[in-house]
Structure formats: C-alpha cells, structure tokens
Amino acid sequence: MGWNEPGGKDPWGSGGKSPPDLDAVLKRFTDRLNRIFGGGGGGGGSDRSLGSGPVIAILVVLAALWFLSGWYQVDAQQQAVVLRFGKFHQITTEGLHWRPRFVDQVIKVAVTTERRYQTQPRNEMLTEDENIVELPLTVQYNVGDVKDYVLEVRDPELSLREATDSALRHEVGSTKFDEVISTGRAELSVAVARRLQSYLDQYRTGINIVKVNVQEAKPPSAVRAAYDDVVKAREDRERVINEAQSYANGVVPEARGRAQRTIEEAEGYREQVIAEAQGEAQRFEKLLTEYRKAPEVTRQRLYVQAISEVLGNTSKVLVDVSGGNNLLYLPLDKLAGADRPVKGGTSQLNNDQLNDIAGRAADLLRRQVASTPRREGR
User: Fold this and answer.
1) 81-135 pLDDT per residue, tens
2) Which residues pair with 327 in a beta bridge?
3) Are both 161 and 176 inside the same structural domain?
4) Same domain, yes or no, for 158 and 209?
5) Whether residue 50 is found in the same domain as residue 29
6) Could you give the C-alpha distances from 138 to 120, 160, 248, in angstroms and in order?
7) DSSP assignment of 210-229, as one string?
8) Rounded CA gap, 93 and 75, in Å?
9) Is residue 133 a contact partner of residue 172, using CB atoms and an 8 Å limit?
C-alpha cells in the first residue's frame, strides 16, 4: 500500500493530507527576506519582491562564505606577513586571525625552523699563498626578520648562496693553505659566519646565520698524493721534535743535578782541604814548640807515630827471630779467616778477633822457633 493511498502513512505525520507546496514555502521565505530588507508587503510590489528575493539570498550566502573564508591560523613556529592591496599592513603571530578575503594577502613563514644550505662538494678556491683548496661547508640559518625576508629581496635563498660564496672566498683568500687545511678551520668558520651575516644584513634578506661548519678542507685530487706525503713528513717532523724535547726534558735536569752535586762536592772538598791545612799548620806550630823544648824525644815520638801509621794499615807482619836466619811472615788476613778480611789494618778488628789472631800468631811463632836450628857460638 502506498503512503498516499487511503489508510497509508503520511511521512509528514499529517495522516491523509498532501505534502506542503514547495512554491508556497519559497514564497513565504522570500516574503520574510523582503520584509527584512525593506521590501513591500502588498499590491504590485509583491511581484518585484518575489523576483529579487533569490538574488538577495544568494548574496547573503556569498557574504557568509566570504566572511568564513577570511579566517586563517598561524602556527607556533610561524609568523605571517599581511599585505593589503599589495602593500605591507601588519605581521601576525601565533593564533587565529581574520582578514578580508580578496583584500588582504597572507604570507606565512616558518621563522623558528632551522634551515640548512650546503655548498658544492668540489668547491675550489685560492688561498693567500696561491694554493688551491677544496672547501665545502654547511650554513645553518633561520628567518630573523620576516618582513625583510618576504618583501625586501626577490629570492632570499639565492642571495644566501651568493653571499656565502663571496664571504668564503674572501676569508680563504686571506688565509694560508696550512691554516685552512689543519689548524685554522675553526677560526675560518667563525670569520665566514661573521662576514656572511654582515652581507645579509646589508642586503636586508632577513636571514639570521646560526652556524657555519667547514666540513673538510682538502687539496685537489690531482695533487692529493703529494700533499699526503707533505703531511706525513710534517707529522714525522713534529714527532721527532716531541721526542727530542722529551729526551731533553729528561736529560737536562739530570745533568743539572749532577753538575750541582759536583759543585757541592768540590765546595765540600775545598772546605775540607782548607780545614785540614789549617789544622796541620796549627799542629806543626805546636809540634815546633815541643821540638824546641826536647828535640830528641820529639824526633823519636814522630818516628814511632809514623811507623805505627804505616804498619797499622797493613795486614802483614814480619818477625825477626833472634838466633834464626829467616824472617817470620805472619799472614794476619789469612789467620783472621777468608770470611773476615782485614781492611785498613788491624785497627778495624774487634777484641775477639785480635785475641784469636794473637794466639794463632804465637803458636806459629813457637813452631817456627822450635824448627829453626841455633847457630853455634851464640
């Protein structure tokens, strides 16, 4: 059974009534718009209102769409340059903003994002001492002034590349080859970054240089083998210099110490000789006084002292045996034992050793005397 047949269900919930007339609904909507926008309410004006109503509705819809399309969002890492009829109007930051569509133009730029530019791998240039070097580098930068970045320069990236090449060649042309290759790379990076930033500020590109990294400085491939030999020779020279310096640091202090010790020993020896000479002089003066008093006694005493000093420094004793033909030889060093050598005479032996030696010497002397025949008539 159809919904419009008797007993059927009306989808508008009106039972058996017919659906509303669309023309009547549109006419009522148009009349309301006419009343809102000042249209007439009766007579012949109703025909004119009916003709202009759809146009006004379309205009209202277009106005609503135009208004809604004017909203735009700026992210946290962005800034937006607003141009009104092609002329700078303002800079908007993070958040939701509205501008009149087709009147203002919005250009969004990521200002906090760090960008990167890298030169050609074989970027050859001439140093101060007229050597060719390959010096690729990387430039890290961001947008510092969004207005200058958008409006002042047609192509900021192209300006950055040209300014980088100019600053790099200027600094390398003022630096020697060895410094560029080895020791001066860090200073070169700082100098290039400083000069590049000055160029970009003069051009008003709005670009801020964060860091310049010199990746690898190397000679051209045609002469790289010869340069490697030069580098190796330079390293060998530095190694030999360091080894020599290390050896000098070890030898020179030791030699200075030995020299100082020799000087001190010489000073001590001089003081000793002077003191002994002065003591001998004083002793001789006192001995001269005693000699003048008793010459014979003094000579005898000096003789005994000299003999005592001479015989006291030897370990050999010769004994003249009365009534014999031979001299007796007493080897005191052997009598004292091989494990107890006599050094510097008997004065260094203790009492037990002296008694032992004396006993052995007496026994040996008795045997020698007993075995020696006596001479007749004595």
Assistant:
1) 999 998 999 999 999 999 998 898 999 999 988 999 988 877 788 888 888 888 8
2) 320
3) yes
4) yes
5) yes
6) 10, 12, 45
7) EEEEE---B--GGGHHHHHH
8) 8
9) yes
CA triplet 217, 120, 114: central angle to 5 degrees? 95
Amino acid identity, position 331: P
Residues 6+ apart with CB under 8 A from 69: 101
- Amino acid identity, residue 106? V
215 and 122 within one domain = yes
Which residue positions in the chain have pLDDT lower than 70?
A: 1-23, 25-26, 29-30, 33-53, 314-378
In angstroms, how far is the first alpha carbon of the chain from the final one?
190
* pTM, to two decimals: 0.49
8 Å CB contact between 89 and 83: yes
75 inside domain: yes
The CB density around residue 139, as the number of other CB atoms within 10 Å, is 24
For residue 69, CA distances in Å to 60, 249, 299, 360 come to: 14, 82, 141, 136
The confidence score (pLDDT) of residue 199 equals 93
Domain boundary pick from 10, 44, 68: 68
Q: Determine the structural domain holding residue 31 and report its residue range.
A: 22-68
Q: Write the Ramachandran bin of 38: left for phi over 0, alpha for psi from -120 to 50, otherwise beta.
A: left
Q: How many domains does the chain have?
A: 4
What's the CA gap between 25 and 255, in Å, rounded? Answer: 120
Q: DSSP string covering 125-179, please? A: EE-TTS-EEE--EEEEEEES-HHHHHHT-S-HHHHHHHHHHHHHHHHHTTS-HHI
Q: Are residues 121 and 205 in the same domain?
A: yes
Determine the Cα–Cα distance for residues 161 and 352; give it in Å rounded to an integer. 105
